[in-house]
Amino acid sequence: MPQCVSLSLFRFGPASARLWVLGQMALARLDFARMPEAEFVKLCGSGTGEGFTPRPNTAVWAILAGWADEATARRMTAHAPVFRRWRDHAAEAWTLYLAPVSARGRWAGREPFRAEPAEGEGPLAVLTRASVRPSKALRFWGRVPDISGVIGSDPHVLFKIGIGEVPLLHQVTFSVWPDAAAMARFARGDGPHGRAIRAVREGGWFSEELYARFRVLGQAGTWGGQDPLDSAKDAA
User: Fold this and answer.
1) What are the boundaries of each domain within the chain?
2) How far, rounded to the nearest angstrom, does the alpha carbon of residue 176 sit from its chain's CA centroid?
3) Model pTM?
4) CATH code of the region 4-219
5) Which residues contact 86 (CB under 8 A, 6 or more apart)?
6) What is the per-residue pLDDT for 53?
7) What is the pLDDT of residues 35-83, one digit of tens each?
């Protein structure tokens, strides 16, 4: 069966809840170590603004996980104690279920996504993950505000967020687009994103990188009090 990847986002309100989840960044790893269904797990914080900044957003945290199939992903994210605890402490939670359709590169030395090319209509998601060389960090973050502004103002992007494992050095960008054409126009154009990609490749900014695309299978919960993918449904 095709692999299913879940991205669960949690928004925490009061300071007590934010302190609670900070402690969970260590404790939750023990839960997942005893969960054979999880093929891989990454616990991530997020950035402020559009999410693509080096300043942490202590309210928003993420669990990215890989599962054998969609049924397992939905069952575990709904009923596993670690996910239930996080939802109980959060003011809001949203999970996307994703099928990898292409992937290249590595994450912490491994290939976490089992990509299976697939045809079909509907939204597509893009995940990029990079380990920034410390010597290149200032130049990398100098590019990010321009990219963040372009993503935020793009009328086609359905959802976007920047998350990461280690502030400044290990970064993940995630976005959802209505179709492949809209996604390609942003990624390959001669705007800040396209120029940054060329600079990265020419300057060797990253010690490791991963680029993956996914078909959106479904979702659960809300974000910002609404369904972020509503406009894609209207267009369908």
Assistant:
1) 4-219
2) 10
3) 0.86
4) 3.30.70.100
5) 8, 10, 21, 24, 28, 61, 63, 93
6) 63
7) 999 999 999 999 876 555 667 899 999 999 999 999 999 999 999 999 9
